[in-house]
# Entry
Amino acid sequence: MTLLLLFLEFAKVGLFAVGGGLATIPFLQDMGTRTGWFTNADLTTMIAVSESTPGPMGVNMATYVGFETAGLPGAVLATLGLITPSIAVIIVIAGFLEKFRQSKTVDSVFRGLRPASTALIAAAGLSVALSVFVAVGGVETHTFTLRWPVVILSAVIFLCTQQKKLKKLHPVAFIAIAAVTGAVFQF
Amino acid sequence: MNIYLDLFLTFAKVGVCTFGGGYAMLPILQREVVEKKGWATDEELTDYFAVGQCTPGIIAVNTATFIGYKHKGAPGGILTTLGVVFPSLVIITAIAAFLSNFAGIPLVQHALAGINAAVVALIASSVLKLAKSNLKDAVSGGIFLAGLALALLLKLSPVILIVCAGVIGWVVYGLIQKGGEGK
# Structure
């Protein structure tokens, strides 16, 4: 029964959360309060783990909540619940777009969408940069300090990705090098 | 290799290489799906992100379904999505079972700060690539700048931004320029 509930609860999250993984958090808070499956403190731990492990954050959160609630079967069903609405909705939309791909109207709409989509990705990148580059001091002092080592490492990696030879490196190679650098120099 | 297996494994690889939200997936998608496999173009990726942000579900899952569907219909869409979530299932289950204080380990925190530095740089490089293929005339440049300002300063909902940009595109490229090529 818990398994079915997990699937349905996460299908609801998948249906109503629109955007990135962070968009799922309010839904999860609400779920924890209603079902008693986990507390807000548990949720904080789960967010931290989901952010620091491979895999899209929203998916990680679903797997984690499912596992904590009902073990491995719970993890599988919560994750399947999260993705089921997306699969259904996107297949319908993708089918529709496929059909109208030749249409001049659809083409002109997408020519307008693309720069806006690029802007949204740039904005998301900038807000990630802000949260990674700036350390907020004590709650009372409200001091902001720039985390120079992180900024420098990021700048160096960016320059490398613009280099003719180095840009052939797989993105994950940069991630691995950065992880080691962070660990060795204690970022 | 069987194409369905290839779709699943490629997206499992994308899942393993993604640290953070759906946006962190973009650099990996450009490498694996656009450059290596040729399953989508940079323009199509931008389209999927645009639609994925306005439709139910998290962007990472929506984008995976889109690419799989485009390539091999509904079975393709299901397999890429299962592929992208598979590593999460394995890794998170292992961590939840054995290492519940994982995020509190100092070594993990230091490594993660480094990883985040790389993710920011990789997203920046992805945005540059997308900008090259998507910002070709004054109108698209204007939409980009206005969108960036509205998203950052006014925190305007992505759904509103995407819908407005679609309408502008329809009016400018569809009605005024009659679908012809931009300047």
